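Contributing: when you submit paired examples, paste them exactly as shown. First protein:
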Amino acid sequence: RPGVSVAHATVIAERIQQKIHDAALPHEASAVAAVVTVSMGVVASDGTVPMETLIARADSALYQAKNKGRNQWSY
């Protein structure tokens, strides 16, 4: 969500992750997990960082989360 601190952004990421976990949505197409999981890349900006840079950072953080074992967030 735009305009929040890193600390608040990570709380939001954890809340989203918990809601998806609690929903226990079946994921029949996955060979990795029986239920849907979520990995997220979290970024923050003071408003001076270009959007393209933020997207690139979020993408990098997303792949860090996936490489650490999925179903988590990374900053």
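Second protein:
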Amino acid sequence: FRANDDRYSSKLIAINPPIQARFLRVNPQSYHSWIALRVEFYGCKADPCDVPLGVEDGRVTKQGMTASSMVNTYYGPWSGRLQARNHGRTRGGWVAQRNDRKQWLQVDLGT
């Protein structure tokens, strides 16, 4: 899918047909300067399927967000929450240490 092309906007992308998953891994295929992103996933147990799954509001814990790498601890996978802002030891997005297609961000949605 094609994501947003600037650092300020959000883009809603529907996965169709729907999938069942406990883990979701985002594997960026292109980037400008650095691989970086913020995410939220929406899902459901039944229709309608438009309920935030807890990445943005913190129900998915810091430990539930992992990544292939991070440029430093300020830009770790836990910083990849949608609407994340700079505060304390968190910055507004996950940033990979290396710029290659092997980088990924994974979210554990629980059971």
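If you have annotations for the second protein, write them as plain sentences, like these:
The chain has a mean pLDDT of 83.
Strands lie at 23-26, 36-37, 42-43, 51-52, 65-67, 94-95, 105-108.
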